[in-house]
Amino acid sequence: MTAALLLAKYGVASTIYEAKPERDPIGSKALCMQRDVLDILERVGCGRPLVDEGVTWQMGRTYYRDSELFQITFHDAGISAFPPFVNVGQDRTEFHLERAVDAEPLVELHYASPVTDLREDDNGVAITAGSRDPSRFDYLVGADGARSTIRKLLGLDFPGRSFTDQFLICDIRAQLPFENERRFFFDPEWNPDRQVLIHPQADSVWRIDWQVPPDYDLDHDEAGGGLDERIRKIVGDQDYEIVWMSVYRFHERIASAFRAGRSFLAGDAAHIVSPFGARGLNSGVQDADNLAWKIAFVLNGWADDALLDTYEIERRAAAEENLRVAGTTMEFLVPQSEEGWELRRRTLAAAVGNPRAREMVDSGRLAEPYWYTESPLTTIGPHDPEMMNTPPGTARPIVPGVLCPDAPCALPGRADIGRIRELFGSGFTVLAVGDPEWAVAAAAARSDAPVAGFDLRAIEPAGLMRDALQLGEGEAALVRPDGHIAAVGLRDPSAVGAAISTALAR
User: Are residues 198 and 118 both part of a single domain?
Assistant: First the structure.
């Protein structure tokens, strides 16, 4: 739905085939929405409603048994419109997206329409879905989950690994004496040698994740009173209501290719990771954002097919980074050897009183947008490489390839205060210190793609963006439709022309 709505912003019509007979109306599932992903969803009208419905949190606490080991907070380069993370159930995310789809005439959504066949030729892809006759499309995006039918029909492999331990998830409605924080417990006495993760939700609902043994049987646990005992270790004697629950295993897999001719894979169809760090739904929406503008540019004649090849280059790199980070977390959470278990136990015990040992405790590094610094679409300046060595998870400098920071600004034609990121999503954007028309003209001379220019001194006089982008008088930055910076420090028309040619894979 996100991909279809983003395509519609460029005038591209699309059809969504959903195998299920209706939208699943309940369950937190992919719960934790990262602020930059909320910005993407805001472009299609869903970001603010999700923030208003969800629960905001800015701190995470990690415990070993009864001892708090450390806290995490979140860095913001600029002034963001949305909080670092918002907890809102996937059922509500899908509700708002479906409502936006229903209001968009360029998008059709068909339930009870599982895809059973696809045939490709030089002119398009023929899709057979449900009981319908085959329909022809220019491109196909398989966003149909970890068991993707599209991936199988394309003959693509899905290598990786699975973990034997299971995880029990319950959405519990209860009045808990907790702040709106993420709380992670290693080895609590009520789940020894395993983990428990607690996340707040709206309406006094709490998402609780228990790591459970490989042979855990939910029905048996529930019938024998074990589930109630497990829940009461957290909620105490008060009344509670189970809203939704599920048991599953974690997998780490990545498709052998994200593109096969005119077909693409996105989200869990392309890559799956463990949920510690909120890298599933968030990275899937970022896949949609990356792919939608590229398909739209090709269909509108603003770019050549080579631009579509960069979807795999950029998003595979992002998926591999997610797999690396999540894999490191899972090696600590669920060691795969007795030596690993012993190291885990020693590290946690030492961390209670040793700050250096705490640095080795891994309860899941939370999601952040991937840097496209090594993308063929990115123009790297002479001083940029020396600033790129800052590791993920820390405050990083703003260099080409990163997501442009945000700040309040005056938007043309609007009386209220807007945001810099509201300028993105319909073409390239030039942010200049001074008159941007020279840069816009230089970009237009190289491409028919839409380019809008703004003088930062006029729309953002506080200078937050100018300082963040390190722009001097008369310099400009070029920002891609998905908000990633293509180039900074542009001083003359030839540099702008070269940068937009690079950003279009020419």
Answer: no
By CB atoms closer than 10 A (0-12, 13-18, 19+), residue 89 is buried
- Which pLDDT belongs to residue 449? 96
Final residue in a domain of this structure, among 221, 249, 277: 249
Long-range contacts of 447-452 (CB under 8 A, 24+ apart): 447/302, 447/303, 447/500, 447/501, 447/504, 448/301, 448/302, 449/297, 449/302, 449/303, 449/500, 449/504, 450/302, 450/426, 451/427, 451/500, 452/423, 452/426, 452/427, 452/428
Same domain, 233 and 303: no
CB 87 within 8 Å of CB 32: yes
Taking only the tens place, the pLDDT of each residue in 429-474 is 999 999 999 999 999 999 999 999 999 999 999 999 999 999 999 9
**The two three-digit tokens of residue 190, written as one number:** 């009520």
Residue 388's pLDDT band (cuts 50, 70, 90): low
Q: Which of 329, 350, 67, 62 is nearest to 185 (CA)?
A: 62
- Is position 416 within any domain? yes
* Residue 473 structure tokens: 């008088």
Contact 453, 432 (CB under 8 A): yes
**Does 150 score more than 90 pLDDT?**
yes
Cβ–Cβ under 8 Å, residues 228 and 235: no
- Give CA–CA dist 495/121, Å, rounded: 39
Distance CA 481, CA 425 (A): 5
